[in-house]
Design goal:
Length: about 170
């Protein structure tokens, strides 16, 4: 899948906020309210489309990609990494396109933050995503819990380090 990444628009943010994931992934569904749209429009998010212009997901960096419980676990102490989050259209998940989607986001982050490693947090129950991240080269660094939506959720911190020669282009 060829991915085109562009700044988040209000239209894309409104569509993303309505995406509904099936259980147990419903953890990632948003409320589809103005607060969600404004979060997606805060400058940390980018929209991802396929070659036909269909919205396939989003990427985020910086504080918007962080999970509160990661601070206590020391996940965010390393300033040689940029925080990375992503979400794929639920209609496309589980169909084998995840690795290409993750790698497109990694290339986007690498171009935007030259010389930085990439760090993410994934809910531990989401083994499907964790396996894709591992296949993309991420390595587990820690486990921690965080309150999300009124419940305590376990997370895995993961980091990707680019080979030295990949940073000098």
């Amino acid at each position: 899948m060829e991915i085109q990444i562009q700044p988040m628009t209000r239209e894309a943010a409104a569509r993303i906020s309505t995406w509904r994931y099936p259980a147990p992934y419903d953890f990632y569904s948003m409320a589809a309210d103005e607060e969600d749209i404004l979060e997606l429009m805060n400058g940390d998010y980018a929209a991802a489309s396929d070659s036909a212009g269909n919205l396939v997901g989003f990427y985020c960096t910086g504080n918007s990609a962080r999970v509160a419980g990661g601070y206590g676990a020391g996940l965010y102490e390393d300033d040689t990494c940029v925080d990375y989050g992503l979400g794929m259209n639920p209609e496309l998940t589980g169909q084998g396109a995840g690795l290409d989607f993750v790698k497109a986001g990694m290339a986007y982050v690498s171009d935007k933050f030259l010389g930085k490693g990439i760090r993410l947090a994934v809910a531990k129950f989401n083994q499907r995503a964790a396996k894709v991240y591992s296949r993309a080269g991420f390595r587990e660094t820690c486990e921690f819990s965080s309150m999300v939506g009124g419940r305590n959720v376990l997370f895995i911190g993961m980091v990707y380090r680019f080979p030295e020669d990949a940073r000098t282009t």
